[in-house]
Amino acid sequence: MEELTILGAINRGLRRAMEADPKVLLMGEDIGKLGGVFRATEGLQKDFGEDRVIDTPLAESGIVGTAIGLALYGFRPVVEIQFDGFVYPAFDQIVVQVARMRYRTAGVLQLPITIRMPYGGGIGSVEHHGESPEAYFASTPGLRVVTCADPSDAYWMIQQAVASDDPVIFLEPKRRYWQKGDVDTSAELSSAHPMNGAKVLIEGTDCTLICYGPTVATALQAAALAAKDGVSMEVINLRSLSPLDLTTLNNSVMKTGRAIVVHEASSSGGIGGEVGQCLMQSCFYHLKAPVLRVTGYDTPYPPSRNENKYLPDADRILDALEQSMSY
Amino acid sequence: MEELTILGAINRGLRRAMEADPKVLLMGEDIGKLGGVFRATEGLQKDFGEDRVIDTPLAESGIVGTAIGLALYGFRPVVEIQFDGFVYPAFDQIVVQVARMRYRTAGVLQLPITIRMPYGGGIGSVEHHGESPEAYFASTPGLRVVTCADPSDAYWMIQQAVASDDPVIFLEPKRRYWQKGDVDTSAELSSAHPMNGAKVLIEGTDCTLICYGPTVATALQAAALAAKDGVSMEVINLRSLSPLDLTTLNNSVMKTGRAIVVHEASSSGGIGGEVGQCLMQSCFYHLKAPVLRVTGYDTPYPPSRNENKYLPDADRILDALEQSMSY
Amino acid sequence: MDQFDDLIQLLDCNGVAVADPRYSSTLDEETLLGFYRDMVLLRQLDMQATALQRQGELSLWAPSLGQEAAQIGSGRALKAQDYAFATYREHGIAWTRGVDPVKMLRFWRGTVHQSWDANYHRLYGYQIIIGAHTLHATGYAMGAQYAGHVGTGNADKDEAVIAFFGDGAMSEGDVNEAFVFAAAYQAPVVFFCQNNQWAISEPTKRQSRVPLSRRADGFGMPGVRVDGNDVIACHAVTMEALDRARSGQGPTLIEAVTYRMGAHTTSDDPTKYRDGADDDLWRTRDPIERLRIYLTNKNVLTDVIAADIAREATSLAERMREGCRQSADPDPMAMFDHVYASPDARIEAQRAEIQEILAKEGRI
Amino acid sequence: MDQFDDLIQLLDCNGVAVADPRYSSTLDEETLLGFYRDMVLLRQLDMQATALQRQGELSLWAPSLGQEAAQIGSGRALKAQDYAFATYREHGIAWTRGVDPVKMLRFWRGTVHQSWDANYHRLYGYQIIIGAHTLHATGYAMGAQYAGHVGTGNADKDEAVIAFFGDGAMSEGDVNEAFVFAAAYQAPVVFFCQNNQWAISEPTKRQSRVPLSRRADGFGMPGVRVDGNDVIACHAVTMEALDRARSGQGPTLIEAVTYRMGAHTTSDDPTKYRDGADDDLWRTRDPIERLRIYLTNKNVLTDVIAADIAREATSLAERMREGCRQSADPDPMAMFDHVYASPDARIEAQRAEIQEILAKEGRI
Ligand SMILES: Cc1ncc(C[n+]2csc(CCOP(=O)(O)OP(=O)(O)O)c2C)c(N)n1
Ligand SMILES: Cc1ncc(C[n+]2csc(CCOP(=O)(O)OP(=O)(O)O)c2C)c(N)n1
Ligand SMILES: [Mg+2]
Ligand SMILES: [Mg+2]
User: Fold this and answer.
1) Residue D187 parent element (H or E)
2) Active-site option among C109, C260, C285, C351
3) What gap in Å lies between CA A22 and CA A25, rounded to an integer?
4) Is residue A325 within 8 Å of D363, Cβ to Cβ?
5) What Rg value do the Cα atoms of chain B yield, rounded?
6) Scanning every residue of chain C, which has its alpha carbon at the shortest distance from the alpha carbon of D186?
7) How far is the CA of C260 from the centre of ligand 1 (A)?
8) What is the reported pTM?
9) What is the predicted pLDDT for the residue at D276?
């Protein structure tokens, strides 16, 4: 067991992935000498060289587009997008080329590319540094979209993402980067919890609280407060936003009859609606209340001095719980 | 009353918008002499000149990005994206700049830009010519996303879009372009049905069938067949995909207790899930069955010789109706 | 400036070999005869496909008519180990990479999204998204570099990559980013731009007021402007650029000045935006005719050989017609394959659902 | 090549006026003294803001330290009717457009997304997305053209637009597309690239192996490479480019060769990727110092005036500290305003919901 931060775990996970497979390359802006603006790749260029940790020109479409070519050549590129808000220039290459290559070629070509990006708000920065673009990717067939919420998941999931033969959008909850936790770095990758499976973090009976990435900590905090009031919440970390692990969700909601989805992204068109719709279809007779959503609002991300009121917090989750229980 | 095709109605609507406001400009690839690959702008450059119907270089981000500058100068650009599949290079400018300008500047700057594009499948063409990207835009705060399904709506909605002070994504159901219908071109724009309001096309009692754009004709066909079997479907044309006209939907589902959403886009992350989730929240005690979805599959768009099996049709809607009624 | 000023040319419009200070060609006459055969067959292929579209057998076709020299000249400059990325119009490149024309049609018929095995032919399938593949080509070339298959001096092992695109593509951000990356890493990639004067209805000057080849210098790579209807010159400049790439001297931009003699695609109507004058001018620059004259004067192309090639063309057309008509429609259930490396629950459920419905309705 | 070869320069590093065959300046000494004052105050503004960030009053700041000449020289070349688009680093441009430094801070404090009224100052707010605004500038310039405010010969009415961006931005597709559009329409826009040698941790050569100004020619516009630490030269080349634009002669690309003397932003640590050697070299090219020497030698900058400017700087800093500390936090409910031109039901419901919760929890 080692204590690592989420950031440190990603760094260690990347290192291990590069050691395991010489075809793994890292690409991105400022990931070399600087080690990335968050230092996720710190020390890797020094140890693996400039041909495996590649500082790129400042052009996101170019980064993803050349990563496609590298993958076609047989490499496993891991692309860093510096911030969530800067992924959009690469959107065309991601959703039109990366996501569809396997389908377009009926399996002849595949693109084992991992696209990492810090995402979510709460770091008090300027516009474009607090976004949650997950729904754009999760609604794109052909992409796997995952996110981690603790150092152990960060360490294992980044390795699973790199090892995946499908392209993976790997979302890193930036405001939790410095959250610490124990990681059993001696274990085998094969023994890790599957990347596309959700995890029940706390078992409960009254209501299922579905969260992922940065809202997991918030959800756990809310569940603890609810427990004090005698309400038992089952907390599920989604982990994979596409595909969704509906089996785990169904089992929980069949039992609790209630569900609340929490995410930072806007409500409309977000993951919460998709999860809610799926649960309505699979658990119709078991639902005692509609699936509720506690999310960012249907506005662009606000100036940072308002973000603590924009981001879902325990108060809002408990308020939703109250609503849910009142049905 | 005049009989027009949807395509002709858009052309006439654009002409009227340009006559009404000298600040209205059209921009796009091949929209000038050629009149667009579908001829939506036929004759407009000849009549309004090259300064108001502007053939642009081949660069979508450039088209939308310069349209932003033109709007800041005081013009009302109407951008044509040649096909749904070619909008992604402009995605950054659309979701990061166009959608947020009003919010970013607290109302000081606004971008009255209309982005038109033919969308949806069924024309038997090659990859990238049959896509339904509506969810990407509908989940982006700040954008209005609308689509038309008949010549009258096409004629009035395009004018409403151009007149809107908010940016509008105007989706044109390309496989219905040649569908004919009567248009009262002598009426006033102010008297037209609001752009952001849904329309009840057929009143019914047993199940609400929610559709938009290219699936409206399919839904009407299914409703007619269902009627023969004595099942009364209420058909609602959504028209505005963002914001959603939940009032109209609620009123209908409160009455029928059942709903099916039909769209060509993939199921996961599509408009259907958002509509279903909203209806679950607003009509929980009235729902006799879960809201169901009849949509394109969770795959990329298939080769055209399979598209008639990919696109929702009456068979699939009736199958869903059967499921819904069986609850 | 006149669009033909300062073009690299080795065979003039009248079929006379001309000298160029910068380039020369040492191709023997057998090879040139081969080019001639390629071009004739490519034109036949193109005309047959266009006809099949008119007969409703194909949903669409993008004619290569008039661009035979640019495509055959450059395509024949590739070595087996090189890799190419092309657009919807480069049937001539597919031809030089050994793709069966019958296979090419499957994409246009709507049977598949990609007509051939990209790795087998070392040619990525028809790219529809303008410019997107120039970045793939650059990344692929970077891969060859990182793999150590560039500049080793082994002429049969060193690899180069070539990307084909049009004059309109020069305006896309992706293409310019590809120039940036290729130059930054000195990647072994050749950017071959066929300036066929039109991007659908827009003339090249709508994209740029200066020759496209001039774009290269500012990105830090050489730019070459060649007569795109001169197969010998196209071959020579491409060979040289590929050699530079393979030997580790970095990227090159080639602008081949040619002309789209036909419609943009079978859905296009050029009379809406261009008059016949240009067509007439360019007919005098026909890429096949000038080589025919040259080889005939040299007595390399005899009536007998010409008749052989004509026969070959006829049977190719016949094979295409049959192959196209016989090609089976795709299995509807194949729609659900290959979205992910392993089966996905959602998708499998959808497959089962539609299968049941189609069965019930007797549609399968 | 040496990065300083062939730079347009009118005032050398030692404060000596030098002649340039291509450009000359007719600025009187009062104006130059004004530039000096601008630069001193800008540096003070920048240092004070950096300090406020350290004290936790700002969440972030992007220093303009070292780029005073490029920003003041170009900014002072604008006419009232011109319009500018700049990045997060161009505080000097905001200064020349009359933006109160206290206002500038609001963006960095996280109070608002845009610090000032873009139309009032004819300067769009800090753009964070690299390169995106170069297209907005080009479109705005096209607007001036369509509105008939270009090339009329009326020097007080004809408009020009200027876009500021960095060396790294030269690699973005958007910037290159902006070049394409500007050249295609001959739009009255000046592209002013401050090559400060770094894009965060990446040196300019990671973006391009040739001088950035050379990019212009291939797009069909003139490219100018100027000593970015020479305020007189920066002013001269920008004036000339803006005049060309206003008179309808189209776009220009200016590369101002300067140096980011500070960190990329207050969150950056340059010691991770660059050594002090460059800093030392560039200190000898300090933009303010060389003008100070020049004006002192000319007895234009007397001790008295210098003291006045110093006092002015001190009080500016004071005003910034106070203004920043006193600036109120935004009203949480303002979060819900201005998403659309008219209120939206979903959003209003969300506003009501959070208002109730905050009230219940006594957080509002
Ligand atoms: C990104 C993108 N935008 C628009 C289109 C539609 N389109 C298809 S071909 C074409 C013109 C391309 O012109 P050019 O690059 O000169 O190639 P050519 O067709 O002349 O060979 C356009 C605009 C597309 N396929 N992709
Ligand atoms: C599209 C986009 N990608 C990445 C970033 C992150 N980023 C902010 S500044 C910067 C470097 C910009 O360098 P340059 O253009 O030289 O401007 P400078 O900061 O040196 O003034 C980067 C990569 C961004 N803001 N936008
Ligand atoms: Mg062309
Ligand atoms: Mg820089």
Assistant:
1) none
2) C260
3) 8
4) no
5) 19
6) C209
7) 13
8) 0.98
9) 86
